Amino acid sequence: MKHRVGITETLFRDAHQSLLATRLKLADMLPVAELIDEVGFYSLEVWGGATFDSCLRYLNEDPWERLRILRKKMPKTKLQMLLRGQNLLGYRQYPDDVVDAFIAKSVENGIDIIRIFDALNDTRNLERAIRATKKAGAIAEGAVVYTVSPVHDIPGYVRTAKELVEMGADTICIKDMAGILTPAVAFELVSKLKQAVNVPIHVHSHYTSGLAAMTYWVAIQAGADVVDTALSPLALGTSQPPTESIVKALEGTDYDTGLDLNLLAQITHKMSSLLENYKRPPVQVDTDVLVSQIPGGMLSNLRAQLEQQKLSHKFDQILEEVPRVRQDLGYPPLVTPMSQIVGTQAVLNVITGERYKMKTKEIKDYVKGLYGRPPVPISEEIRRMLIDEEPITVRPADLLSPGMEAARAEIQDLARSDEDVLSYVLFPEVAKRFFQQRQQA
Known about the structure:
Elements: E1 6-9, H1 11-19, H2 30-39, E2 43-48, H3 51-59, H4 63-73, E3 79-83, H5 96-108, E4 113-116, H6 127-135, E5 139-145, H7 154-167, E6 171-176, H8 183-196, E7 201-205, H9 212-221, E8 226-229, H10 243-250, H11 261-274, H12 289-292, H13 296-308, H14 315-328, H15 338-352, H16 361-368, H17 380-386, H18 404-410, H19 418-426, H20 428-440
Parallel strand pairs: 1-2, 1-8, 2-3, 3-4, 4-5, 5-6, 6-7, 7-8
């Protein structure tokens, strides 16, 4: 039975987030945007993740304007974004009114599909965003974050997927941010998901460990409907498998994508010349991730921070400490913001020479339950080392007061739109500086 596989192209979001530290400028997207729109991709991932922050912080671009321009240039293809559930695009939980407003404006400005994940797979942190996405008329893709630990297994992932579908998710994504999903596990997981939920299954992986292309092939044979790839100028390494290679591998099979390799080649040549001014890391396979489970982006950021602080000689010790901290915290998947929380605490433990002598506010908030429910309860011994109070048991956002009106009052002189207010809510100092510079221009 023929089963045409859809391709989500990540060039304008995850690919450059993974390989260029999210620095790809809009000006270097636009020369290929109209050609990309002609390809016939299932969707184009163009927004969300770290791109919003990076636009404001480093590129002097309004992320909302970037989205509007991309929408205008690519009217035929569904535009997709990545959203961290109740964390939106930031690193903490936001009130429900902010979640509702942000999603409504994202869809109004051009987003068709929102992939929604929670770092802890705590579905309480996903329900509001799924509901808001549906209300706004977009496709809600519920993501199951994949990791490996003594407490994570396929039945658990299937339960999470079923909960997401019951909440209204239109599709389910297996989100393998570290590139550690093996072909055998992918086959079983996709097969079980296809039996358990009657929605399309989307597989997202990174090439970090060298497994992703093999994993995609097996996942497709098990029934996966869509896979994430990146055009070859920004593929491999910590990015996705190359679009062209996956399209060619499926050509002539029952899973043929139907995409035109000649058109892809034309885009690739044009994109390669546009990237000549960017410093790209050498493409390599990092099999350490199969043991450490530390995603490539977390590793590169860790290396850079240690170099700045002249602590590079501590790198190996910190790598050994990361899994210990993760175990202490109930095995959270190492994806934003948990990768930052675990990584920072591992650094502090090593440089102070005493575990948990220094503690970040974020790790204390996590243990209090303010990020959600850990995969397994944290031991009393560790909890007492980190906080001296009982953790909460309610959904964290239930403790937050509405945020939009207060933010609007704070930033009223600088904000020109509701989109500006939302930028300010997510990244107050960065957005305020951006608005001040805009006013002076």
